[in-house]
Amino acid sequence: MSPGKKSNAKAPTAATRSSLKKHVATVATVQAREALAVIFTIRLVNALFVRTFFQPDEYFQALEPAWRMVFGEDSGAWITWEWQHQIRSSVHPAVFAFGYWLVQNFWGPGIASTVKAKWLIAAPKVLQTGFAALSDWYSWRLAEKLYGHGSVAAWSVLLMTLVNPWQWYTATRTFSNCFETTLTAMALYYWPWDLLGTEDDGNAGSKYSSIPIFKTWNQINRFRLSLVLAAFAVLLRPTNILIWLAIGTLALTRATLGGKSPLTRTNLLIVYREVFLCGSFVLGLSLLADRQYYGEWTFPPLTFLHVNVAQDLAAFYGQNDWHYYISQGIPLLCTTITPFVLKGLFKSLDAEKSGWPVTTSNALKALSFTVIINIASLSFVSHKEVRFITPLLPAFHILAAPYITSFFTSVSDAAASARPTANLGWKRIPILAGGLLVNAVIGGYLSFFHAAAPIKVLDFLRNEFETIHPTHLSLPRVASATPDYDFEQELFALFLTPCHATPWRSHLVYPELRARALTCEPPVHTAPRSAQRLAYRDETRRFFDDPLEFLQELWPADRPGEDMARYIVGYESIGPTLHKYFDWSGPGGRHKIELKEVWSSWNGLFSDDERKEGRLVVWATGFYDYTLPVEP
């Protein structure tokens, strides 16, 4: 335009600006929905790919009580001591009970029981796939909230989540920690991060910002949703409260935070009011749900803390060094991105120097503080598992995002990673390809090969039961007018493995498939470090201490044949003991059994328990195949 001439272009009107804003919001919403559909598809493939056994809690803390909720007390579900002593909330299994209920009640009445069994096994996987997808999606949305819509850093968070081998190995499993991670990611996304501080509004005479943070009902409702989700996460795993105590402490003390505090008296009263109302609402729902499940008023989170912290019963399942989460937990959880996570934790302490806006730098400090508080607190508990810090994964990925993008792309520094992905260049491609290959190998091996036998063996036993007893496949159990006493006395499978080494009714399915396994109930009524607790030996330990003596106790000489199994399941190391027991000159020679190996499967390159080393084997006893000759 020539100097002195006026432009004919008109400034956009308020209506035009409003229309443009709505259009951009609509496009962003459509993109987010499309991204969620893609993430769900990836996680569904992930769920189908995972065919291995990891930890018993995947089944016994969720699926077994869920099975009992739907199919009743005589359904054969294994209800562990944790449920008998009311230390678990019924909310988590109720979610999967809903999936079982849908399959049971909305499937065609003429469908074969064998087909329904497959759908019952798949239902929890499909539900957990949805939760895993939401965890990934909300982690990405939170990154967009902090780093900017469409930013390089935000997209890197999503990519890190999807290629993380730990996530690939565990995200689609029905652990309470995985559901807790989803609830935490959602709650962090809806959390009003302006509570930690806002930009300087020019009001130099006050330490409080005049910028309103609860200006509309929509803002208050999002805050309420965050509080409700956080409260459910705490009910699910009481240690989750450490995350919210860390964030709340920073908001109130403002230690290391920048900007001005928005917590005026009015805003502080709103916060206290909503915390009380939302907390009371969730607590009330939880009390009613647990009252319905347990048949009496109880508060599982309090019992959980008493049993695991005060009584230190968690130590019964293993103890670890104080530095476990630092030396093993974070590296296992983050694998190849661990250096970037550690750098993000360190750099977040001075996040404002990286050029981030006040809200972003304060949020990064809060996430780092949350990580430090959680790891420091959980390190004091003797029993430690990587799963216990899984809810920190969204924080780890967000903290690492700026530094992994600046390392592998043309983004010049951390703050520049908030820019859009257009014209993005790549560098250090061999290192990136190597890291992705390592992730693929780890995730692929753990998900498809490592400890796959405990899943396969239940498929074998279930298929055998369907073949041998096709008239006993009813779901739920149906009382027969003409009882089959011979069948009722049959023990179909005996598991001589470490306790909870396989799934149970969620994979055995049929209530009339009677099975028995070694137990490992802890000494609940003994004092920590007492002589009684130190001397206590559960059933599993007694068996592996002296297998031959245990078998003689299992089948006493004065009650020959009682509860003899059709199939015996165990790792190959117990094979010689079984043959010695059943030998014609051995203690079990009276049973006249010749063991026959009918199934076995490789169980991986290594094991964290020497009792699970080698192949998993199924031996047939032939006990129920023997028939007495008919007298003339």
Give helix and strand order, one letter per element, not per position.
Answer: HHHHHHHHHHHHHHHHHHHHEHEHHHEHEE
Q: Quickly count the domains.
A: 2
Give me the oligomer status. single chain
Bin the strand percentage.
under 5%
Helix percent reads 40-55%
Count the helices. How many?
Answer: 25
Structural class: mainly alpha
* Distance between the ends: 118 Å
Rounded average pLDDT: 88
Kindly provide the radius of gyration, computed on alpha-carbon positions and rounded to a whole number of angstroms. Answer: 29 Å
From the spread of the alpha carbons, the general shape counts as elongated
Tell me the strand order in the biggest sheet.
2-1-3-5-4
Beta strand count: 5
* Biggest pleated sheet: 5 strands, mixed
Question: Which residue ranges are poorly predicted, with pLDDT under 50 across at least 5 consecutive positions?
Answer: 1-7, 627-632
